[in-house]
Design a protein that fits this description.
Blueprint lengths: L4 E5 L20 E2 L2 E2 H11 L4 E6 L3 H10 L3 E4 L5 H4 L5 H4 L4 E5 L2 E4 L15 E8 L6 E4 L4 E4 L10 E10 L15 H10 L3 E5 L5 E4 L3 H9 L10 H10 L6 E6 L3 E6 L2 E6 L10 H10 L7 E5 L4 E5 L4 E2 H8 L1 H17 L15 H20 L5 H15 L3 E4 L8 E4 L2 E4 L6 E4 L1 H8 L8 H15 L3 H28 L9 H15 L2 H30 L1
Parallel strand pairs: 1-4, 1-6, 4-5, 8-12
Antiparallel strand pairs: 2-3, 6-11, 7-13, 8-11, 9-10, 9-11, 14-15, 15-16, 16-18, 17-18, 19-21, 20-23, 21-22
Helix pairs in contact: 9-10, 10-14, 11-12, 11-15, 12-15, 12-17, 13-15, 14-15, 15-16, 16-17
Length: 556
């Protein structure tokens, strides 16, 4: 006899899939042209399910509208109840019936819905759960009867561990073990049932195709693995295609640490952004138009939809300053950039400045230094900040606070200078603010992404002095202080990004430390220079050990 009822868990905050969930709840995001929720419901109906309840919280109106249009019932939770607490409002509806409990943000195929239920009929069995050896493998299974013995393994990934796929068939008696009020996890109910001699059995389907699409990286990977038009159904992408009559395949260009994702279609770049944590992202379009009106070479804004957290820009190309310098030489490539930077800084005196980020001040210098102390010194190296380095930090801030105010890009590095058909474009200016102009020059000439020879650095600094009207001696004396501050900020940012799932930034730590040592020596910041030397030695040792390990594995 088929199971007629199912609960789909679709209540959450949408945090793991931002920026896509800024305007769409995660279960309604498309995978291969169909929303994850629609895919789950379609699968349930092929198993004979007739009554489906979908719980919801974030952007619940959209889930409710979808349910009303697709023959499901929505269960709105003003306060999130968790995967177990979600069942409490449904106790009368569940009654004494068996039911499916399925996560709303998974993608699965080739599963028959527990067609073989002989084990389910056993008196001490309270549920069946789909498991796989893919993913984090955090549950432990006793092999003789396939009983789940531990849902939070202290040894994830080892032999005998599996990943729970978010698909379960449960007897109504599981409600006896669900915390009757407030938020709770279904795992807590499983654990209470186990202590009472009632078990959940693990089922590992042979041909199951399954993935958790609940993170940005995994969601994008899943869609890239599908059809060539997989991204077209995203609300932001479809709106851009329609508004600008764009045609052709949409390809994912990448994500940045500033809560943005980029897609390319033809000669346009579609940006999907989150402005909740990074309010500056919402100002990109206005800043671009203002800068363009002042003659700054920035990508043209083709469309802006703040309601969808989306904008479309002219494609500025994929050749960054490093690649262009390899082609034409460092001085030839950097000369127009330095000239443009000098002109950019002078805009700080404009009468019609748009709303900017808070200006550089003593608090912001400390914030950048604290980022370094927490994520570089603390988390990466397990060190406290030496007293001498604290004094050097204070000296850096003191020197920079005396500098005349200019318009500062804030991230004027090689990756944000693009070239296409011989034309330069400056990007990523949304964080611009007033501050010392030499901060941007330091970002460019001491960039960890680009190697600039000392002689070239001095020549370009002299060019900047002429273009900006600053004394050449002043630029030469002050630039190393700005570079030290900028590199401290960059090292903190690399450490933070590496700690939140973007380990690729760690490869820039060593060149950043080497540039920091050079800047500290030039500025006579002896304690900071000494610290940089120590950290360089650690990074070199780590690189040597890693290389030896890789070489050893290759020989094996």
């Amino acid at each position: 006899m088929s199971v007629k009822k199912a609960v789909v868990l679709a209540a959450g905050y949408g945090t793991r899939l931002r920026p896509f969930t800024c305007v769409t709840p995660k279960p309604l995001l498309p995978v291969w042209g169909e929303s994850m929720l629609a895919r789950v419901v379609r699968q349930l109906r092929t198993w004979g399910v007739e009554e489906i309840v979908v719980n919801c919280h974030y952007l619940h109106e959209q889930i409710e509208a979808w349910c009303a249009a697709n023959g499901c019932r929505a269960s709105y939770e003003p306060e999130i109840l968790g995967t177990g607490g979600a069942l409490n409002p449904l106790r009368d509806w569940i009654g004494a019936d068996d039911f499916y409990l399925v996560n709303g943000d998974i993608v699965f195929e080739r599963f028959d819905g527990f067609a073989d239920r002989k084990a389910f009929a056993q008196g001490d069995v309270i549920g069946l759960a789909v498991v796989t050896k893919e993913g984090p493998r955090t549950i432990e299974v006793e092999p003789s009867r396939n009983i789940v013995t531990c849902w939070r393994s202290p040894d994830p990934g080892y032999e005998g561990t599996f990943t729970y796929c978010g698909i379960a068939l449960l007897k109504a008696s599981i409600l006896d073990y669900v915390q009757p009020q407030g938020a709770s996890s279904i795992v807590q109910a499983y654990e209470r049932a186990t202590m009472d001699g009632r078990f959940v059995l693990a089922v590992e389907p042979k041909n199951l195709l399954w993935t958790d699409a609940g993170t940005v990286s995994r969601y994008l990977e899943v869609n890239e693995e599908g059809a060539s038009n997989a991204f077209d159904a995203l609300p932001q992408i479809s709106a851009a295609l329609e508004e600008l009559h764009l045609t052709g395949p949409v390809s994912f260009l990448g994500a940045r640490g500033s809560n943005r994702c980029f897609f390319k279609v033809g000669d346009a770049v579609i940006v999907v952004y989150d402005d909740a944590a990074r309010g500056e992202n919402a100002r990109y379009a206005a800043h671009a138009r203002w800068l363009a009106s002042k003659g700054v070479a920035v990508p043209k804004v083709l469309a802006a939809r703040p309601d969808l957290k989306m904008l479309v820009l002219e494609n500025a190309g994929s050749t960054d300053l490093v690649a262009y310098a390899h082609r034409v030489g460092t001085l030839a490539a950097y000369k127009p950039v330095v000239e443009a930077l000098a002109a950019f800084g002078k805009l700080g005196d404009a009468d019609d400045l748009p709303p900017l980020e808070p200006a550089f001040d003593a608090a912001l210098w400390r914030q950048e230094q604290d980022l370094f102390k927490e994520f570089a010194l603390g988390r990466r190296y397990g060190r406290a900040c030496p007293e001498g380095v604290e004094k050097d930090f204070a000296k850096m801030a003191e020197v920079l606070e005396k500098e005349p105010r200019a318009l500062v890009h804030r991230d004027f590095q090689s990756s944000n200078i693009l070239w296409k058909n011989g034309k330069m474009r400056i990007i990523d200016f949304q964080g611009m603010r007033r501050g010392p102009a030499l901060y941007d020059l330091a970002s460019l000439l001491y960039d960890p992404y680009a190697r600039v020879a000392d002689a070239d650095r001095k020549a370009l600094a002299a060019l900047y002095a002429r273009e900006s009207g600053l004394a050449q001696t002043h630029v030469a004396e002050t630039l190393p202080f700005a570079a030290a501050q900028r590199l401290v900020q960059a090292l903190g940012a690399y450490g933070r990004l590496a700690s939140v799932g973007q380990p690729g930034f760690a490869r820039f730590i060593l060149p950043a430390l080497e540039n920091l040592l050079a800047a500290a020596d030039e500025a006579e910041l002896d304690a900071l220079g000494g610290l940089a030397e120590e950290l360089i030695a650690i990074e070199m040792k780590h690189a040597h050990t890693h290389a030896a390990h890789v070489h050893g594995r290759a020989k094996d």
